[in-house]
Amino acid sequence: MFDFDIRPGEPDRLGATRLGKDSNFAAAVPEELSCSLLLYPKGSEEPAAELEFTEEMRFGDVCAVRLCRFPAERYEYNYRIDGQVVQDPYAVRITGGERWGACPEGEHSLRCGMDAGHFPWQGDKPLRTPYEECVLYATHVRGFTMDPSARARRPGTFAGVQEKIPHLRRLGITQLELMPVYEFPELGSRAAPKRHMPIPRGGAGRINYWGYGEACFFAPKAAYSASGDPVRELKELVRALHRNGIELILEFYFPDGTNPNLIMDCIRHWAKEYHIDGVHLNSREAPLQALAMDPALSRIKLMSEYFPVDRIYGPGREPTARRLAEYNDDFLTKARRFLRGDGDALMQAAESMRRNPASFAVINYMASHNGFPLADAVSYAVKHNGDNGEENRDGTDYNFSANYGVEGPTSVRQIRRLRSRQVRNAFLILLLSQGVPAIYGGDEMGNSQQGNNNVYCQDNGTSWIQWSRRKADRELCRFVQEAVAFRRGHPAFGRRQEYRMRDDLSRGTPDLSYHGRRAWYADFQDGSREIGVLYAGEYTEGETLYVVYNMHMSAHELALPTLPEGQSWYLKADTGREEGAFFPDGEEPLLEERKMIEVKDHTILILAGRRHETD
Hints:
Blueprint: E1 5-8, E2 15-19, E3 22-28, E4 35-41, E5 49-52, E6 58-59, E7 62-68, E8 75-81, E9 84-86, E10 93-95, E11 111-113, E12 136-139, H1 141-145, H2 158-163, H3 165-171, E13 175-178, E14 182-183, E15 216-220, H4 230-243, E16 247-252, H5 260-274, E17 278-281, H6 288-292, E18 301-304, H7 309-313, E19 324-327, H8 330-339, H9 346-354, E20 361-365, H10 374-377, H11 413-431, E21 436-440, H12 471-488, E22 512-515, E23 530-535, H13 537-540, E24 544-550, E25 556-559, E26 567-574, E27 590-591, E28 596-599, E29 603-611
Helix pairs in contact: 8-9, 11-12
């Protein structure tokens, strides 16, 4: 029936790989367990052959077989290990799970596929955009376009994400981060080398919407494909993003006990085969030092909660270009406390907003999938996770949020206006900080999760982005576009070097300085909720900027630092304005002959020092 020779394979190449006209199958299997290779005609759940690994095909704990002149394009495969049919953890394609939410039944319902072969990359390659030029947008493939309000032709898929590239470009996004896109079980359990289990917080009947847990980490998720070919569709998305100047960052969660070698091989695979620009490693198991020092990954951005930079670069050494980035909740906690006006938050927030290490970047965010979106952070004081079926015990109790008088939606106009202003303030705190700003998908259009801060099991309108077309949300989206453009147009923000708060060049002013009611003196004592931050143009090679923050419930006056002769302060933005925070170019109000400036409650002002043009 089969016209091919069977020989011992190559044990150092795990997975199914092509060797000329031959195919090599290699799997890590404990020596005491039996193992055989199952071959299926493509699309069939009935195996056509079962090839047992003989002793000469075992190399330690690796079983390897080489099938000569094997027509790989006509077959799929699995392994039978100790009597159980399992998928290859190195499989680059999984068939049988093309429909989201359908739990495949039968031991042969899921099968592994071989590499599809050549893809026309047409000269594509990773963009290598410096971190200091990046604005990141984080979202979920399905949730980004699944809601009917998205008006996507192919909702919930890689192709659906591609349809929304114009939206990302209008926002000024340079990096798109996607939650797990590899093959994970969204319902129940599946047979695998280790039994697939729901994420720890969930019960067996809940949707694993986020995708964390046991998975086939090398294969793109079939249910995220509109075309039925997830490999090609994801590569088309990468190519389209790159053509529009947007990098792709993929998040990986490796459960406890995952083999570090598999993690290394997995990241190399995605970098080589999919031209991705970086990975967010959300795992305690990731061998961070080895990944950072791997020559094959020297052009890939690596993001995680921590990197042992002294061991990676050596004590006191700095990389010529930053590839590593710290991704944690520290900024969110401090910035949200400052936003809501906590009396002891000012100094910590100022330090976090200024932080910009030389050896690695920092990823700043005011919201993420693990917690409230921005709209809920200013609308709910506590979580409302009852629909998750865990009696509201899941999810964090520490949201650093406020409702401003009413829990949830309200018709009180004064509260609604304050909430809108606080969302604008949150975006400016994020975008005027020195790290890489990460926007949580949907925040730019006022998306709400109705107070649910842990939507891991919600595959519905709670977790899907609502593409609002309300006037207020359109105005918010326009504000975010303007704020991103302002950041990218002013070198005071997103610098490669950290501010030293000194006048090292003897220009008469420090590179960055803090101001309060008195110029050149900032009150960081408990109870202070207002501050002015001066960015000296002599050090940024741009305009001198003065950003004034007042997160107090009352208006405050702050000093206006004196500018060089012939320059005056112009008001660039005021989040307290209802008709639009940013003034159009050429229409910025001139602040003449002032020593002080009044800032309304919960308001941020941006001023620019320019030559005062006279008639």
